C-alpha cells in the first residue's frame, strides 16, 4: 500500500478579501521577504482604506473601498522601485479569495498567495510588472488586540513563508524567506495611535515578533511573541530597546534586543516624513537574528505639511 504524500502547508486562517470595513476604518495585508542570497528584498501591502493616504484623510465620506491600493517596494542590488497608486471604488473588486485593484490582482489559494503586479512607480513613472507568490511554512489562526478602543487587531497569518519573485519590469527573479500578516481597525490608524515600533525576525526554531505601541486613549501596549514551527504562539520576556542611527526625516528608531546587546542597522530601506523601514541585525532571546524593523509616527502623519507631500509618491486615479 502506497503512503499518501504529505500535504503542503496551508494558511491556518485564510484571510477574506471581502471582509467588511467600517467607514473610516482600514484593513491591510502585509508581506515582506529577503532573497536567499541576501541581494534582494521587498515589501508588499494590499490596502482597503489606505491608512497613509492623504486622500482618505481628507475625504468627507470616509468610504474605505474608495481608497484602495497595492504598494510594492523593491530593495537591494537592483535599482529600488516604489509603486503605490490609490484607486477608487470603480477600479476595485473584492471577493473572498480574489482582490482586484486597478490593473493588479491578488488571489488566495489554499497553499499560496499569488499577486499579479501591474503598476507604475512614483515619482519616476517606471513600470513595475510581474508575479509574486507567497507559500506558507508556519501559519497561525490567532488575532491580537493592539488597542481596544477602535478595534485595532493584528493577525500573524503566516509568520514564516517562502516567496517567489518573477518580474518582467524590472527583469528580476529570486526566492527567499518571507513573512505575511494583516492589520485592521474600525477607525483611522492615526486616531488610534501616536507611535509604534515593530520588528519581526526568523529564529532557528520559529519566528520572533515584537510590537510596542502608544495608543491615544489607553496605556502603552506591547507584544513579545515567539511563533513556533507548529504555529503555537508563546509570550516571551520583554525585550529592551536600543537606538539605531536617526535617519534624515528624524523619526526616531529604536530596535528591540536582549539586555546588553547592540542592534545594528544593515540597510535603511525607507526614510519618510512619518515612518522608516530598516533591515537590522539584533539579538532576541539569545539568538542573533536579521529582521525587518519599522518605526511609525502618527503624530507626524497628522501634520498638514506631511500629508501635502505624500501625493508625490502616492498618486490617485479613479
Q: Can you describe this structure?
A:
The strands form three sheets. Strands 1, 2, 3, 4, 5, 6, 7, 8, 9, 10, 11, 12 and 22 form a 13-stranded mixed sheet that branches. A seven-stranded antiparallel sheet has the order 16-15-14-13-21-20-19. The chain is globular and about 50 Å long. Helices cover 6% and strands 56% of the residues. The chain starts with 25 loop residues before the first strand and ends with a strand. The protein is mainly β and 318 residues long. Strand 13 (193-203) and strand 14 (206-215) form a beta hairpin. It has helices spanning 54-58, 189-192, 298-301, 304-309, and strands at 26-35, 40-48, 68-76, 81-87, 92-95, 98-101, 104-109, 112-120, 127-138, 144-147, 152-169, 172-185, 193-203, 206-215, 221-228, 233-235, 240-243, 254-257, 264-271, 275-284, 287-297, 316-317. Mean pLDDT is 93; it is low at 1-6.
Task: Please give the structural blueprint.
Layout lengths: L25 E10 L4 E9 L5 H5 L9 E9 L4 E7 L4 E4 L2 E4 L2 E6 L2 E9 L6 E12 L5 E4 L4 E18 L2 E14 L3 H4 E11 L2 E10 L5 E8 L4 E3 L4 E4 L10 E4 L6 E8 L3 E10 L2 E11 H4 L2 H6 L6 E2 L1
Parallel strand pairs: 4-22
Antiparallel strand pairs: 1-2, 1-12, 2-3, 3-4, 5-6, 6-7, 7-8, 8-9, 9-11, 10-11, 11-12, 13-14, 13-21, 14-15, 15-16, 17-18, 19-20, 20-21
Amino acid at each position: 500500500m502506497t503512503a499518501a504524500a504529505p500535504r503542503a502547508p496551508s494558511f491556518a486562517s485564510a484571510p477574506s478579501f471581502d471582509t467588511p470595513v467600517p467607514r473610516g476604518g482600514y484593513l491591510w495585508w502585509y508581506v515582506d521577504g529577503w532573497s536567499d542570497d541576501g541581494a534582494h528584498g521587498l515589501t508588499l501591502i494590499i490596502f482597503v482604506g489606505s491608512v497613509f493616504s492623504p486622500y482618505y484623510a481628507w475625504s468627507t465620506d470616509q468610504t474605505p473601498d474608495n481608497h484602495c491600493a497595492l504598494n510594492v517596494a523593491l530593495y537591494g542590488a537592483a535599482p529600488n522601485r516604489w509603486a503605490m497608486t490609490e484607486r477608487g471604488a470603480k477600479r476595485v473588486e473584492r471577493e473572498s479569495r480574489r482582490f482586484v485593484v486597478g490593473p493588479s490582482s491578488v488571489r488566495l489559494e489554499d497553499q499560496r498567495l499569488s499577486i499579479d503586479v501591474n503598476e507604475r512607480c512614483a515619482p519616476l513613472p517606471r513600470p513595475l510588472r510581474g508575479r509574486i507568490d507567497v507559500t506558507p511554512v508556519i501559519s497561525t489562526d490567532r488575532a491580537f488586540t493592539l488597542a481596544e478602543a477602535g478595534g485595532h487587531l493584528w493577525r500573524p497569518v503566516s509568520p514564516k513563508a517562502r516567496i517567489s519573485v518573477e518580474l518582467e519590469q524590472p527583469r528580476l527573479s529570486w526566492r527567499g524567506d518571507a513573512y505575511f500578516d494583516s492589520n485592521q481597525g474600525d477607525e483611522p490608524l492615526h486616531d488610534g495611535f501616536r507611535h509604534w515600533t515593530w520588528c519581526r525576525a526568523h529564529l532557528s526554531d520559529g519566528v520572533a515578533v515584537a510590537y510596542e505601541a502608544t495608543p491615544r486613549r489607553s496605556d502603552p501596549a506591547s507584544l513579545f511573541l515567539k511563533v513556533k514551527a507548529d504555529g503555537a504562539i508563546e509570550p516571551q520576556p520583554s525585550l529592551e530597546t536600543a537606538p539605531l542611527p536617526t535617519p534624515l526625516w528624524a523619526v526616531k528608531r529604536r530596535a528591540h534586543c536582549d539586555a546588553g546587546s547592540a542592534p545594528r542597522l544593515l540597510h535603511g530601506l525607507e526614510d519618510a516624513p512619518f515612518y522608516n523601514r530598516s533591515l537590522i541585525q539584533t539579538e532576541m532571546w539569545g539568538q542573533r537574528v536579521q529582521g525587518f524593523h519599522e518605526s511609525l509616527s502618527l503624530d507626524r502623519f497628522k501634520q498638514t505639511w506631511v500629508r501635502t507631500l505624500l501625493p508625490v509618491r502616492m498618486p490617485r486615479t479613479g
